[in-house]
Amino acid sequence: QVQLVESGGGLVQAGGSLRLSCAASGSVFSINVMGWYRQAPGKQRELVASITRGGTTIYADSVKGRFSISRDNAANTLYLQMNSLKPEDTAVYYCNAVSLIVPTVLNSWGQGTQVTVSS
Predict the structure, then answer these.
(1) What is the DSSP string of 46-93?
(2) Strand partners, 74
(3) Residues 6+ apart with CB under 8 A from 5
(4) Dihedrals φ, ψ of 57, to 5°?
(5) pLDDT digit string (tens) for 60-101?
(6) Residue 80 has what pLDDT?
(7) Which residues make beta-bridge pairs with 93?
(8) How far apart are CA 31 and CA 99, in angstroms?
(9) How far lies 116's CA from each of 37, 51, 55, 85, 96, in Å?
(10) What tens digit of pLDDT does each residue of 25-69 get?
(11) Which residues, in sequence order, are CB contacts of 31 under 8 Å at separation 6+?
């Protein structure tokens, strides 16, 4: 079992910045990939960015060049630095961890943190 707790959301004006954090606990040794997803009202949850244990990253086209994902494996913490925020970035942001304990693949989610960008 992996537990995830997000923090760092809030209200910011367009053009501003926020940094999200996600603290992982439990069976953290089993975590392979971590990521941030977001869900806006009336829309499906979508991948924002992900990072492997080795540091390989993937970004949604809509956030490339503005957002940066990183992880501190020693501290079991995931980060999302969000710069040049736009109103369309408004959503609940969720931390995700994919763990492999052979033969089981486990998908863990945080409770979400609200990000609101005003125009």
Answers:
(1) EEEEEEETT--EEE-GGGTTTEEEEEETTTTEEEEEE-S--GGG-EEE
(2) none
(3) 22, 23, 25, 95, 110, 111
(4) -115, 155
(5) 999 999 999 999 989 999 999 999 999 999 999 999 999 988
(6) 98
(7) 38, 113
(8) 4
(9) 15, 24, 28, 9, 20
(10) 998 888 999 999 999 999 999 999 999 999 999 999 999 999 999
(11) 2, 24, 53, 97, 98, 99
Computed on alpha carbons and rounded to an integer, the radius of gyration of the chain in Å comes to: 14
24-45 exposure pattern, b = at least 16 Cβ within 10 A, e = fewer: beeeeebbebbbbbbeeeeeee
- C-alpha 66/C-alpha 59 separation (Å) is 10
Tokens of 11: 């209200």
